[in-house]
Amino acid sequence: MDIQPLTPHIGAEITGVDLSQPLSNEEFAAIHQAHLDYMVLVFRDQHLDREQHKAFGRRFGKLHVHPMNKNRSGDPEILVVKTTKDSAYTAGEGWHTDVTCDEFPPMGSMLYITETPECGGGDTMYADMYMAYDMLSDTMKDMLDGLVAVHDGAMPYLGSYGARLPEGQTYPKNEHPVIARHPETGKKLLYVNSGFTTHIKGLTRKESRALLDFLFEHIATTPKLTCRVQWEPNTLTFWDNRCTQHHAVWDYYPYSRYGERVSIVADSRPAA
Ligand code: SIN
User: Fold this and answer.
1) Residue 39's CB: how many other CB atoms inside 10 A?
2) 231 CA to middle of ligand 1, Å?
3) Among 228, 227, 231, which residue's Cα sits nearest to residue 46?
4) Residue 165: which pLDDT band, with cuts at 50, 70 and 90?
């Protein structure tokens, strides 16, 4: 197995492993360590059916069932990511961390893209939330430490995607620390995202809005936080959802792009 970094701190391409086959313990340990070190792992030229995709996910934990996955794929553990000329939106077009409205958001997601737009484009950008935290001043870090933010599924699922839930069901909504600590590396990171975070508790509405807007702008306008994955058909990217954000770039209208995502539930809540 060979690991080639995409940037000095985030993203790596891994070659020499066939994800359709059960991983040896050595392969698993190397991928697990690379996931902690590089946060975004790109595996090209993989040929997986759904069971093989899910089996790779299960090596890292229990598979996540997305709160809005109403069996679009026929399998609650597979989230279809599909954009065509008839799409009103593309999922994930905006900086976000997956499903932080959940009490136990995914520890990681594995997106397997099998169809890329004929015109090119359709990349995914990823941003390093350790570095986003480290770049803040000590005064700002002190102010954010100990604050708690609300993450509400209604904002993207109803607000952006117009997805209504059946009568009586509610969108997941949970509180997480603004500055969290990665459960495995122990490093501090910025844990608010424009996809799900609605407000910071204990501040006035104006204060919370101003602070969140500053943090979201910091993420969106600091290119050195990022790496960019250019997909080819049959590429699988596995990101650490605890310390990154991502943004799907919809620059290929009216062309199509298709993939399927498996996510793995974290075994602990985000904690300070
Ligand atoms: C997602 O947010 O998981 C979708 C990312 C993508 O389609 O590139």
Assistant:
1) 27
2) 12
3) 231
4) low
Minimum CA distance residue for ligand 1 atom 1: 92
Q: What tokens appear for 231 in the block? A: 């997909």
What residues act catalytically? 96, 98, 246, 261
Domain range summary for the chain, segments of one domain joined by +? 2-265
pLDDT tens digit string along 260-270? 999 999 999 99
Structural fold of domain 2-265:
Double-stranded beta-helix (3.60.130)
CA distance 218 to 69: 31
Token pair of 79 as six digits:
């989230």
For residue 213, the surrounding DSSP H or E stretch is helix 205-220
What is the Å distance from ligand 1's center to 109 Cα? 9
User: Is the model's pLDDT at 253 over the cut of 90?
Assistant: yes
Dist CA 31 CA 14 (whole Å): 9
Q: Is the pLDDT of residue 164 over 80?
A: no
Give me ligand 1 centre to Cα 124, in Å: 7
Residue nearest to atom 6 of ligand 1 (CA): 248
